[in-house]
Design brief:
single chain, alpha/beta, TIM Barrel, 12 helices, about 10% strand, lyase, 2-methylisocitrate lyase
Length: about 280
Amino acid sequence: MTELLSQEEKAILLRQLHQGPKILVLPNAWDAASARIFEEAGFGAIASTSAGIAFALGYPDGQVIPRDEMLFMLRRIVATVRVPVTADIEAGYGADSVDEVLTTVRGVLAAGAVGINLEDLAEGGAALADADLQSEKIRTIRALADTHGIPLVINARTDIFSLASISAEEKLDRAIRRGNRYLDSGADCVFVPFVKDEPTISALAQGIRGPLNILALPGSPSVSELEALGVRRVSVGGGPARAAMSFTRSVAAELHDLGTYTRFTEQVMTYAEANQLFTKNNF
């Protein structure tokens, strides 16, 4: 059983996990059950997934889910595990409003989470947010967390590699410049998703003056290979949530088309095992 830690202690621990000696592997949970399963597997910290939570509550991804519903699921995740939890808050549910983003972060802190993932796509997703505005968001978030006495771990995400209108060479240069600017503004880590070739990952790790977070994708280097390239944090996004949805779809197809039950009766967690995840002795 993991020792009970205060919120401040969890934040300190999460920050320390970015410093090694091993790469930080963060699974992304979409509800309390997935969070407990990840914790039981031995992960030292857990992240939420905006896409997975949105899907679980009946919304598409992309800041469509109401802030309060996202925070409800975050509260359930934090309350169900003992390890530090960092929250995917997309662009902060505030578009270009710093005040709205701060409202989101207050909710994250109130939920007991100790980190955030903040992306820099402008509303609509077709362009990057203004770098000055994004830096201001990071500075004000840092100041807010400091007033609460929580060393919140800010993972500053830049989505430049998702934009088809920019050349590969320019993407790399701009990702490094944005990442370092975010670090200078108070971020603890820089998240550059949608990159999986080793030369680019290595260049990012060398150019960004702080921990680099990479998203695991089909064809991505393994965890050990990413560690060797200088990556300090790897996350999996909505992949496990979509895998669970895919399994449920196969269950549905078997039940509907064949009238048989093997998909959900063979080699699956028993009722007792599932119930045991949530007994008071375990969390």
